[in-house]
Design brief:
- The chain is α/β, with parallel strands linked by helices.
- It has helices spanning 13-24, 40-50, 64-74, 88-93, 95-116, 149-167, 201-209, 237-250, 269-280, 304-310, 318-331; strands at residues 4-8, 28-33, 55-58, 78-81, 120-126, 172-178, 180-182, 216-219, 231-232, 234-236, 256-261, 267-268, 286-289.
- It has eleven helices and 13 strands.
- Helix 1 runs parallel beside helix 2 (40-50).
- The structure holds nicotinamide-adenine-dinucleotide and uridine-5'-diphosphate-4-deoxy-4-fluoro-alpha-D-galactose (UFG).
Length: 337
Amino acid sequence: MSSRVFLTGGAGYIGSHTCLELLISGYDVTIFDNFSNSHIEAVKRVEAIAGKKVALIKGDIRYHEKVAQALRESKSQAVIHFAGLKAVGESVENPLVYFDNNLAGSLSLLQAMREVGLKTLIFSSSATVYGEPQYLPIDEKHPLSVTNPYGRTKLMIEDILRDISSSDEDWSIGILRYFNPVGAHDSGRIGENPIGVPNNLVPYITQVMAGRLEKLRIWGNDYPTPDGTGVRDYIHVMDLARGHVKALEQISDHRCLALNLGTGIGYSVLDIVNTFADVCGQAVPFDMYPRRAGDIATCYADPKRAKDLLGWTAERDLKQMCSDHWRWQQRNPNGYL
Ligand code: NAD
Ligand code: UFG
């Protein structure tokens, strides 16, 4: 019998790509999502690409009894917890919404898991829990600190998971700290579907190239980086998806394991702009602006621990990240609508 994985937030950007990778790897999947930031069409397309059905439940993780019932009925062997809100600026303006959705939602899920005796969990954390980098590349021993309510929810959930793990040895918990996920499945049928004007660099650029936005605004060219623009560790979402499958395979050997999922390579905003120009065959129009509040200069992972413990490394390069993201944008100018 194949094993079933329960994905909270599985209809979203990273969840839908991970769902596809799980199906292709032989797992069955149940998605539990309230569709607050996603579309049912994403799940239909995943099913079509994989040639396999997904069990889909519309629900909110904050409704503990509904989650417990869904977990019990799905007979899942593990949970991957993607569900959450993720806009840093919005979290500063509306912290209670973030504490309610992300923190209370996670507590409700964890209680439901304990109730049904399911104690294997992979959690979507973020490089944001490292705060302002004190050294580079950032390994998992780097001190943890946060600068906004979104990041605080991630760190608080991580702390809760560490406490649960210390209190009960039956739990197996993987905390995956994503760096900057970009790209799309190479079919061009699923991808990132931001609502409104994107905050993140890569979806903003693809919308400029598609003519939906006029010009990229580059937030700062006076950082202490080789070309003055911010440097990040961009990782292809399909590599990230494979990281989850690898983590699932290994997690029973661990009680609570935090891992970076990044490439270990930092690229500047101008590196990304130039790669898109290459992929799209035309220059990316941009203007320089002052730094964006809260941004850091440079951030990239030391991904060695994931390599040593999971046998996982990111394989896709920057050009592939940009060309796959661009293919998705071109084929789906209005996202899933
Ligand atoms: P996304 O918004 O595309 O997906 C999140 C999914 O969770 C959506 O389908 C949404 O409808 C669902 N959801 C939200 N609140 C819910 C609730 N209360 N109950 C049920 N479903 C709910 O985001 P994503 O980019 O796929 O991110 C997935 C996870 O990874 C998030 O936890 C995010 O914080 C984390 N993460 C994302 C990034 C990134 O840059 N994309 C980086 C680091 C960490
Ligand atoms: N940038 C621009 N113009 C834009 C958007 C971004 O110049 O329109 C620059 C930023 O200043 C930064 C780089 O592009 O130097 C990357 O910015 P993103 O907004 O794409 O990504 P961040 O690294 O700022 O943040 C992302 C997620 C956070 C998460 C963090 C660490 O949005 O939620 O990665 O994982 F916390």
